[in-house]
């Protein structure tokens, strides 16, 4: 799966699941602030990621994610790791 496809899928579910304004989702924007996420929202996001991309998310992985680009990079890396197995 290519990075562009991952970003497209990710943005689509962020808009659908978290009612995010598409124009506010930019690579440099702060993920938590833009989506107004609380701890339950993170759990919802983990469930959606695992369902859509087929890999398990470790809670500690989210500590390093600040921007949407960080999020895209994380998902892309994990998808590529899964594809190698």
TrEMBL record:
InterPro entries given in the database record: ACP-like_sf, PP-bd_ACP
Residues in Carrier domain copies: 1-79
One Pfam family, short name: PP-binding
Domain of life, per lineage: Bacteria
Gene3D superfamilies: ACP-like
Protein name in the entry: Acyl carrier protein
Taxonomic source organism: Chitinophaga defluvii
């Amino acid at each position: 799966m290519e990075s562009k496809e991952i970003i497209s899928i990710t943005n689509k579910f962020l808009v659908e699941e978290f009612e995010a304004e598409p124009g506010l989702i930019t690579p440099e924007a702060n993920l938590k602030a833009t989506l107004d996420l609380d701890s339950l929202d993170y759990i919802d996001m983990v469930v959606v990621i695992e369902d859509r991309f087929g890999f398990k998310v470790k809670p500690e992985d989210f500590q390093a994610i600040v921007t949407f680009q960080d999020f895209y990079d994380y998902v892309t890396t994990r998808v590529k790791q899964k594809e190698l197995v």
